[in-house]
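Re: the pair you flagged

First of the two:
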Amino acid sequence: MTRQRFSVESEGHCRIVAGGQYRSEIKSMLKRFFVNNFRSLLNVEFRPAGINLLVGPNNAGKTNLCSALRFVGGTSEQALDAAMFGAIGERWNITSFHVPQAKETEFEVENLR
């Protein structure tokens, strides 16, 4: 088990060309994702297992959880502002409206290798 901040790798196999030949490489799988003060999410921990389905009432935070995952994944290939724009379509207004005095947003990622 490895623990990383601001890095998400997709699960499963990917094909990589090496010297003209294909080889399969297993990437790490997301074990735990924690986000605090991101849009409507306050102290949310997500532990995916296999195939996951997010179900809940409107305004429960399902889309915001997916956006947070997209943002953290995007930071591995883009600058922070570009990753944020790609995740939610804007570069501002990312902190929770429930806690207006909070200035920081936290993300934690744990991967299995």
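Second of the two:
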Amino acid sequence: MSFRSIFIALIMAFALVLGAFLIQRARPRGEVDQPNAAFVRATKQVCRMAVGANGFVLHAWADFHGLAGTLFENVVSGAPPFAPLLLPNLAILGLIGIVAKLRER
């Protein structure tokens, strides 16, 4: 990779960051206020659910396209497809806890 391509990439990254700051500065004050803690926690749980769903898809894809001769052998000896679904299950329990805590108030 030449210095020219690295320099162009750095200029483009700087332009993207500068554009983001300028757009953020032009937003109305009501949109810029910080969200409450429950919203942040719920967003984290939704991201955890997305990671688990992506993991399930990747594990299932690895089993369907594995090196073994049959699908059964790929599932038994390959990536367990339901292992990543622990994350969405825990996220659902976390969302239930967040909603329960909000209802107490």
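The chain has a mean pLDDT of 83.

-B.
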